[in-house]
Amino acid sequence: MRTVVTPSVDTPEPQPGLRPVRLPRRWLLLATGVLGLVVLLAMVTGPAGLPLRSVLVEMVNQLPGVELDGGLDEREAAVLWKLRAPRIVLGMLVGGMLAMAGAGYQGVFRNPLADPYLLGVAAGAGLGATFAIVSGGGRLLVPLAAFAGGIAGVAATYALGRSVGGRSTTSLILAGVAVAAFLTALQTYINQRNVESLREVYGWILGRLLTAGWGEVLTVLPYIAVSTVVLLAHRRLLDVLSVGQDEAGTLGVPAGRVRLFVVLAATLGTAAAVAVSGLIGFVGIVVPHIVRMLAGTSYRIVLPLSAVFGAAFLVSADLAARTLISPGELPVGVVTAFIGAPFFTLVLRTSRRVW
């Protein structure tokens, strides 16, 4: 009697980037705890020191129906809610957005060194802000001009990239380099023609978190909120893209559409952040890589943790910027560059092990 053996069909092992991954609760609690500690330290530290216990009581008293004794007096409350709190919240929004944008760019371009300024956002925003400053546009016009310049820079990059290479990632990156070089040359020309404004221009370029109440926070909040929702909604698709564009296509994932939405969302949020903070570098490189090294490479982990750790990182950098040479103040971009430059070297040496 002849025996027919039917070969067993085993379920293929899922690719590392496709395994169902959830954000570990311990990492979310750790990130939230770090952010909370940094925020408290930033609230009580400054030229006008505030007692920690009184700050905590003051925050609890903001809850409906709560009125505890031992809070801040009128002057201290004005320092907290009109000066420090808006600056801290702005730092959280900008830091979280830049870190998420960096992670998004690194995902769609599959490049561990991609950052939020890759596609000409920084150069366009710098040109727009420079034009507004030298024309005497004032505090209101500079953020609007920077935002418009950042969006225009990315639009020019996309138009040039598609005209020479279709949807090729390499063509898009090279187009960003070319557009950034051209816009930077225009900015340099304007600066040389208006040397009396150089100090203000370079102060903006080096990055700062200066607020006059809650106006800047309310200005960028809608753009950053929309960008955050879109990026988080695409975190699973970024995991699929990590196995390769062709493989993603066989799984039914429209790689071109995913790339477009992620780049647009990251660019919109970055342009809004840059408009109110100036050019703050290295956040989009440092934070996502720290998250990858500590918690894992899945974008279901990287994106949300990058938002929280990015907020904590920039608030910490801003705290250092306003206390290291007190009563003077360093540009926060100098502090992030001081931390990010050595880390950039570390990334070059270890990117193969964490990517």
Give your account of this protein's structure.
This protein has a single domain, classed as ABC transporter involved in vitamin B12 uptake, BtuC. It is globular. The termini are far apart. It is mainly alpha-helical. It has 14 helices and no strands. The chain crosses the membrane at residues 27-50, 88-105, 117-134, 140-160, 172-190, 210-233, 260-287, 299-321, 330-348. It holds the Pfam family FecCD. Belongs to the binding-protein-dependent transport system permease family. FecCD subfamily. This is Iron ABC transporter permease.
Keywords, separated by commas or semicolons:
355 residues; 14 helices; transport; ABC transporter involved in vitamin B12 uptake, BtuC; mainly alpha
**Fourth CATH level, the homologous superfamily:** ABC transporter involved in vitamin B12 uptake, BtuC
Q: What is the first-to-last residue Cα distance?
A: 55 Å
Uncertain ranges: 1-18
Q: Structural class from helices and strands?
A: mainly alpha
Largest sheet: none
Q: Determine the fraction of residues in helical runs and give it as a percent range.
A: over 70%
Count of helical regions = 14
Question: Which whole number gives the mean pLDDT?
Answer: 83
- The share of residues in extended strands comes to under 5%
**Rounded radius of gyration (Å):** 23 Å
Write the element-wise H/E pattern from the N-terminal end onward: HHHHHHHHHHHHHH
CATH class term = Mainly Alpha
For the record, the count of structural domains works out to 1
At the third CATH level, what is the topology name? ABC transporter involved in vitamin B12 uptake, BtuC
Beta strands, count: 0
Gross morphology is: globular
Q: Per CATH, which architecture? A: Orthogonal Bundle
Transmembrane segments: 27-50, 88-105, 117-134, 140-160, 172-190, 210-233, 260-287, 299-321, 330-348
InterPro entries: ABC_BtuC-like, ABC_transptr_permease_BtuC
GO molecular function: transmembrane transporter activity
Protein name: Iron ABC transporter permease
